[in-house]
Write a sequence for this structure.
């Protein structure tokens, strides 16, 4: 389930200022309820004042595969996720946004693939899907290719003032690679 699909579902209660529907929105401090007629109506209300504190919304029509209870959109310390509404009796959870798996092989172990992950601070990085056996991590976007200078089997993409450019992913090399040499 995508995050945009969850937030496009309207709430059942009307806005107390203008009577329009309230929708779940997200901001830099987390999810909140806001009027669907924004910017004409600027009513907002935090979701954290609910009795449970962690359940943001019950997802009607979606059921837990373990206990058949309704699933709920929840806020945890690492962000939003989907979990069973009968927690702690049932501990079923699902990710909202699955990590993006690339077809790029891990240059360290040569067995795994690089996947996009998110740190607890919200930063994205790429690491090997064989963690903890392989602990390869890179903060820049990986690009398939071989460095012509040192032969390292991975390139990274960095944004510069002239546009996106490719560089060698090896910390010892780090040289820029022109587009015709990276293929």
């Amino acid at each position: 389930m995508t995050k945009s699909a969850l937030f496009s579902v309207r709430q059942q209660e009307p806005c107390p200022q203008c009577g329009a529907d309230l929708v779940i929105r997200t901001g830099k401090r987390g999810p909140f309820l806001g009027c669907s007629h924004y910017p004409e109506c600027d009513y907002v209300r935090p979701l954290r004042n609910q009795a449970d504190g962690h359940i943001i919304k019950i997802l009607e029509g979606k059921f837990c595969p373990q206990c058949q209870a309704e699933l709920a959109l929840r806020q945890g310390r690492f962000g939003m996720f989907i979990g069973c509404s009968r927690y702690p009796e049932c501990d079923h959870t699902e990710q909202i946004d699955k990590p993006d798996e690339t077809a790029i092989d891990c240059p360290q172990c040569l067995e795994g693939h690089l996947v996009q992950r998110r740190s607890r601070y919200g930063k994205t990085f790429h690491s090997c899907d064989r963690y903890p056996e392989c602990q390869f991590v890179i903060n820049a976007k990986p690009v398939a290719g071989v460095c012509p200078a040192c032969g390292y089997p991975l390139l990274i993409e960095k944004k510069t003032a002239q546009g996106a450019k490719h560089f060698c992913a090896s910390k010892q090399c780090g040289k820029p690679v022109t587009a015709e040499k990276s293929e």
Remarks:
- The chain is about 5% helix and 45% strand.
